[in-house]
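Hi F.,

I've been meaning to write this up properly since the lab meeting, where we talked about keeping a consistent format for the predictions we share between groups. The idea is simple: the sequence comes first, exactly as it goes in, then the structure tokens exactly as they come out, then a line or two of notes. No screenshots and no reformatting. I'm using this chain as the first example so we have something concrete to point to.
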Amino acid sequence: MATTLAVLMVVIVLGGPFGEATVEGAPVDDGLRVEFEVAVAGAPVAVVVHAVDPGQTQDTISLADRGGGQWGGVADFDVMNYVMVFEVIDRDGEGILSEPTTLLALGLDPALIGMEEVATLEEDEGNQPLSAATRRWGWGAVALTAVALALLAVWAMGDRVNTGPVQEEETQPPS
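Output, unedited:
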């Protein structure tokens, strides 16, 4: 059951003619072997995946038709979190690109690229500890805000407060 849940959590939908996409990885020598699988709607002539590393070099990997709208392939990479863009090539030779994603977003185990724990916005947005410098700046901002609000209150109330001596006014009774 836990394995099934883990597999369901790492499936990503790329949009357009693309359905669910997943990757599985394994270490090989000094690199990483990655197996891709993506669902594609329609009857494309070819499906490829472009792998872009942080140095902006690109590898293009052809995927094979596995039947039932599933396309897959295997490639060896250096150990890093590549940006992946899938492309469908139709009969007219035109390509349709998917949204860019990463190997980690597609479900690659972070330990395979040397990352012990990966925090995502959905999971750990507020759970990261703040550095001492960040906390000092935060408390300084709170103190400055309190002083500014106090000065604003004094300024706003200044016209309403009569600081002169109290004088009694004589009033005439109504006749």
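Notes:
The radius of gyration is 31 Å.
The longest strand covers residues 18-28.

If this format works for you, I'll send the rest the same way.

G.
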